[in-house]
Amino acid sequence: MHDGAGLPRDMAQAPEVLAPAHVGRWFGVLFVGLIGAWILHQLLTNPGFQWLVVAQFMLDRRVLAGIGMTLELTVLVMLIGAVLGIVVAVMRLSADPLLGLCAHAFVWFFRGTPVLIQLVFWYNLASLFPELSIGIPFGGPKFYEISATVAISSFTAALLGLGLNEGAYMAEIIRAGLLSVDPGQGEASKALGHRPFQTFRVIVLPQAMKAIVPPTGNQVIGMLKYTSIASVVSLQELMHSVEDIYNRNFETIPLLIVAALWYLILVTILSVGQAYIEKYYSRGWTNSAPAAA
Amino acid sequence: MSIAMPAAPLVRIINVWKRRGQNLVLKGVDLDAGRGQVVCLLGPSGAGKSTLLRCINALEVADRGTVEVDGAIIGCAMKDGKLYRMRESEVSRQRADIGMVFQNFNLFPHMSVMDNITDAPMRVRGESRAVARDRAQDLLGRVGLAHKADSFPRHLSGGQQQRIAIARALAMSPKLMLFDEPTSALDPHLVGEVLDVIKDLAATGMTMIIVTHEVQFAREIADVAAIMANGVIIEAGEAKEVLTQPSHPISRAFLARSLREGH
Ligand SMILES: Nc1ncnc2c1ncn2[C@@H]1O[C@H](COP(=O)(O)OP(=O)(O)O)[C@@H](O)[C@H]1O
Ligand SMILES: [Mg+2]
Questions:
Q1: CB distance B34 to ligand 1 below 6 Å
Q2: DSSP structural state of residue A19
Q3: Which of A8, A92, A235, B64 is exposed most, by the fewest CB atoms within 10 A?
């Protein structure tokens, strides 16, 4: 043992540990700064951007209506996707082989065919089934009947096409989340007398959310932009509205910038929301003890 | 169907068989636990102790044979002389009366200690929040953790987590407590605090079936000891006898090894 162990030592005698010199970082700063300056210069001086036109159309009534439709479609599609996803994921994890097979088939089909085709397919459903009805199949009586062209508007086609596809992706995300929960959790819950649905809703799902939320945030943000595909069935969402405007006034670049800025704004808001939700579902998992009440 | 006599054991395990994959894990197990009795189940790992314990609250259902608790068959219903599995929602009603403590505690990490303890009494028994919280606070006092109600499980030591898991099970006022190696996942210096809580519980007259490797503890606490190996109970009886003068060579070897390992 060291002589005089336990005695106070002189701190000044201990060599201080220093950070290494960051030569490379200075070049990095210079490089990034140059690129940034060039981008800023272009934005401010290139007349092609036409910022005045951008400003003029940012709050245009048609643009705002398009945003409304984009948001509505995104929310509804994600709701359909989440509900379908939960049902399909639970079916797939169930012990029942028939349920598992159906779930597997659903994911296989709707993840395996392009959304564009699904959209157009739903939109043109009338050519396959001119009449939609509820009743006994194979020629039995019908309780309710409606013409397919009436039932399938561009909005319903977009909802069905995007929603079913999203359901297939969400099913996989939710399944992965459910599998990430320690099986001991479900057992402890069952042992306390929770019924199966309570075990799922109160114990397993909230813990799975920790793994479900980040990829779902990704899906929502992707979907917000992906709704623009619904313009192929002439739905007036943000992209379609902007197209309509520049087809008439030929201010293509400024109007694309209007759309891009709006998508960016919406995505930023969503990302902030996602951060809060992630924080909520990591309750009990942080390393630091919560501040004493 | 027979009416449970006052003298009838609380738990009757009758000729239980269970296959898991290719393995026959339980091969005709019989075991009783009388009211207020403490039964300790010992034996080498892989013997089928956990499987047997999990059959008692139907976390697993036996392939053959019956488990009765308080006169009711667990996890199955007898119809026309045949046994049929119950639906999960019916089984959960039976499980509510049987407490279980796991090797890995299995506290709910997303809930505070208080919510861990009060959730089932409120959700399953329909108790009011006030009543549930009052009893939870009592129970936390009993396991020496009255000041931890607002903590989250991850911020507690293993010993503290296991004591809370015991409090959580007791909050349902079970008529039977099952313990599956409650101290095996603990650092040696934390084992004592959990065993003390279980000893206190035994003193209150709770019926308990405890799977454990702690032979010394079993000698102190058990009324009945059973030793399991390869899916059968090779020896069962008065704890003092079984744990000091075992007759079966496997039990003798097992006990000698356990005691040598300092448990
Ligand atoms: N999921 C499983 N599939 C197949 N065999 C298993 C499974 N779980 C446990 N077993 C086998 O069952 C036997 C008994 O296991 P268990 O009841 O956990 O024993 P113990 O608790 O006495 O250690 C062991 O031989 C083990 O290998
Ligand atoms: Mg075991």
A1: no
A2: P
A3: A8
In our burial notation (b when 16+ CB lie closer than 10 A, e otherwise), range A221-246 reads: bebbbbbbbbbbbebbbbbbbbbebb
Task: For ligand 1, pick from B17, B19, B51, B233 the residue to mutate: most ligand atoms within 8 Å of CB.
Answer: B51
Are B28 and B15 spatial neighbours (Cβ–Cβ below 8 Å)? yes
pTM of the model: 0.85
The count of CB pairs under 8 A between chains A and B is: 82
User: Is the model's pLDDT at B3 over the cut of 70?
Assistant: no
Q: Which two tokens stand for residue B140?
A: 């936390």
For residue B30 the two structure tokens come to 């019989």
Residue B88's identity, in one-letter code, is E
- Residue range A192-229, pLDDT digits in tens: 999 999 999 999 999 999 999 999 999 999 999 999 99
3-class state of residue B244 by DSSP? helix
Separation in Å, CA of B191 to nearest CA in chain A: 21
Domains and CATH numbers, chain A: 48-280 (1.10.3720.10)
Measuring CA to CA, which residue among B65, B64, B63, B67 is closest to residue B53? B67
Strand order in the sheet with B224-229: B98-101, B176-180, B208-211, B38-42, B224-229, B232-238
Do the chains contact at A193 and B119, CB–CB below 8 Å? no
**What is the CA B182 to chain-centroid distance, rounded?**
9
Tokens representing residue B187 in the block: 């650092």
Q: What's residue A287's pLDDT?
A: 63
Ligand 2 centre from B46 Cα, in Å?
7
Domains assigned to chain B: 9-97+192-263 (3.40.50.300), 103-173 (no CATH)
Token pair of A104 as six digits = 């597997």
Q: Residue B232 forms beta bridges with which residues?
A: B229
Q: Which two tokens stand for residue A73?
A: 């479609």
